[in-house]
Structures are given as C-alpha cells and as structure tokens.
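Late entry, evening session. Most of the bench is empty. Finally got around to the prediction I had been postponing all week. Sequence below, unchanged from the version circulated by S.P.
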Amino acid sequence: MAVLFSVVGLSVLGTFMSGIKVWQKVYQKDSDEDIAIFFDEFSFNLKNTILYNSVPFKGNKTKLSFATFIRTNSKFDGLKEGVGEVIYYWNKKERKIFRIVKNLSDIYRRKEESRMILGDVDNFKLSYYFYDSKEKKYFWSDEWGQKRIPMSVSIYISICCNNKKFVYRRIVNIPIGQI
C-alpha cells in the first residue's frame, strides 16, 4: 500500500512540475516581441515628424522630442488626434525607456504623463544623421538642437532578459529631413 501511494505521489508531482514549466514558458517575458513593438511605434512616430515652431526637434544621447501626428485619450474630440509632441527618454537608474505623448493643449499647459514602453534596458543611445552644407559632408551627431530636422536617427538598445544580453540597432530615415 505504501508503494502505491509513493508511485501516485511521484506521478502527481511530475504532472505538477510539467504544468509549472509550461506556465513559465507561456508567461515569461519575451524581449523580441517588446522590442519589435517599440521599434514599430518609434519608427512610425519619426517617419511622421513635421516642422512645427512650437515643438522643435531636439535630442541628445538618451532623450528625443519632436512634433508628429498623434492620437490621445483626450476628453475633447478636437484634441484626440492631430499635431502633438512625442518624447522618448531612457531612465538609466530604472533601466526603462519611457514615452510621453502631448496634444497641443498639454504642450501649452505643460502637462505630461509618461508611460514605460520598454524595460530591462542596460544601454540606450540615440544619434542623428545630417548633411553639413559648409563642409559638404554627412555626419552623425550625439546632440541635436538645430532648427532643421535630421535625415535619420540611429537607435542602439542593449537589453538583458532571462540572463541573456540582446543588442539591437535600427536606423530610421525621416522623410521630411531628406528635403
């Protein structure tokens, strides 16, 4: 009888452990999916960049802000979509990338609400590609504060997920910056 209980107990334990492994596989964080969503959203915003005097295109290694077409959850129909400001920044201490979307009303009221869009980020670097008409050459710069829009933005991201390091780099061409 004791042998029967131990055999049944071992089979129940084995089934339970298999269930735990399946649950962990289904619910584990998938960095490839998160990074794909981030790059899609980031690229879409940059490709829709517009020149707007109240919202200049400016950036450095870890933060970028620019005017683009946005959609928000505003209570007012006229502010739900249209021109707005998008800000991406990396918080090194928290190891997260945040996104802020502001409609015109939010810009002038200086209201902002950030949303975390990517976590476990060990390194994040932005750089800006442009043509220097004086030197007649193309350059990459870590800072952008000029009145014009750069031709491209390079994004470098290093993520640590499940004790593995993943490095991603994407260059997004900005159509209005090509003019």
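Two things to note before I forget:
Residues 151 and 177 are 4 Å apart (CA to CA).
Helices lie at 2-27, 31-47, 104-109.
Will write this up properly tomorrow.
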